[in-house]
Task: inverse folding
């Protein structure tokens, strides 16, 4: 009962904190490894500190190739107007961010048909305007994604850990079964030994009872 009350209280506290802060928005880092020939989602999320404050945002994506020192402007999203700005990404970038509102908080884009030339640094920039009661506040938030393109997908850490845990569990279960068998064998052996001892004691007592104290002859 006490554990249930503690769990309920923790859930209530979490709910209150979320509703007072970033309701419906969580900043999750983008994945950083893409497979050549497949698609990849460049994640970029920028949550507002206060959801009740109206605002709007423009999202820009820049790209810097591996070994290069300069960023090139490859993509811009401004309320229902996604625009690819570089020929190397023409027809391969697709907006996967917030739709249907100017108040953009998710600025992710999807790269179709990833190539090894897509390896490099991607810079996501939010140009946000907050409409406060007395004035407007302009905020610029930037996030980088270091993308590596590989020929074959590497197993994720969680999958590796799960596989290791599975083998560990199998080994533990096998050891437990061996222990149970040894325990059962010893218990059965001890019971058999005790039964034999009881039989021997019973036979000895019968012999003592049947012995004639006068002539030392056993009765048949």
Result:
């Amino acid at each position: 009962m006490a554990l249930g009350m503690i769990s309920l209280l923790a859930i209530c506290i979490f709910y209150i904190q979320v509703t007072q802060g970033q309701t419906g928005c969580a900043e999750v880092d983008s994945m950083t490894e893409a497979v050549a020939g497949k698609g990849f989602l460049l994640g970029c999320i920028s949550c507002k500190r206060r959801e009740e404050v109206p605002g709007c945002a423009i999202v820009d994506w820049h790209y810097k190739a591996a070994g290069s020192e300069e960023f090139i402007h490859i993509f811009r999203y401004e309320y229902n107007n996604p625009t690819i700005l570089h020929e190397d990404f023409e027809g391969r970038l697709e907006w996967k961010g917030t739709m249907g509102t100017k108040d953009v908080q998710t600025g992710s884009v999807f790269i179709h048909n990833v190539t090894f030339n897509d390896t490099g640094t991607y810079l996501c920039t939010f140009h946000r305007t907050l409409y406060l009661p007395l004035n407007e506040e302009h905020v610029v938030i930037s996030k980088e994604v270091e993308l590596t393109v590989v020929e074959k997908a590497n197993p994720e850490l969680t999958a590796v850990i799960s596989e290791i845990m599975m083998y560990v569990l199998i080994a533990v279960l096998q050891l437990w079964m061996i222990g149970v068998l040894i325990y059962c064998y010893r218990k059965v052996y001890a019971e058999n030994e005790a039964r034999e001892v009881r039989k021997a004691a019973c036979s000895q007592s019968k012999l003592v009872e049947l012995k004639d104290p006068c002539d030392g002859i056993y009765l048949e």
Observations:
- Residues 157-210 form the longest helix (54 residues).
- Residues 208 and 215 are 14 Å apart (CA to CA).
- The helical segments are 2-20, 157-210.
